[in-house]
Amino acid sequence: MINPERTWSSRWIRSGGTGTGDDSCTVDDRGQAALELVAVLPMVLTVLAVCLQLLIAGYTVVATDDAARAAARACSASASPTAAARSALPSQLMSNLDGVATAGEQVTVRVRMPVILPAFPGYVFARSATYARCSETPGSAIGGAL
What we know:
The protein is of the alpha+beta class. It contains three helices and three strands. Strands 1-2-3 form a three-stranded antiparallel β-sheet. Strand 1 and strand 2 form a beta hairpin. Helix 2 packs antiparallel against helix 3.
């Protein structure tokens, strides 16, 4: 005699199946969602890591550009461009300042991009800004009298 507790069709009927002839070949799907999650989770985490790394790269480029402009303003005022670039960088990137170089009327600031995983290459972003020496006397108004 066949034990109805051990057949696939009886499991399907007990779990809410219809019990028609087509349902007798259906197997139990318990654990299928957990198995799919385990299979998809590494891909999802990799995509999230790549997106986060792209956001960090964009943030580094914008911060480096701001630091280059601050260094150019400092050069224009005969101040230290390195100190100005360091003060313009956010605290998260201050330790990644790779150098400040001046050539003629151009200041170049180099900042290393932080990486979240060792598999990502560590790029160095170099941003330049030009400056002009101020030829006006201190205290004079720009564009005429006020």
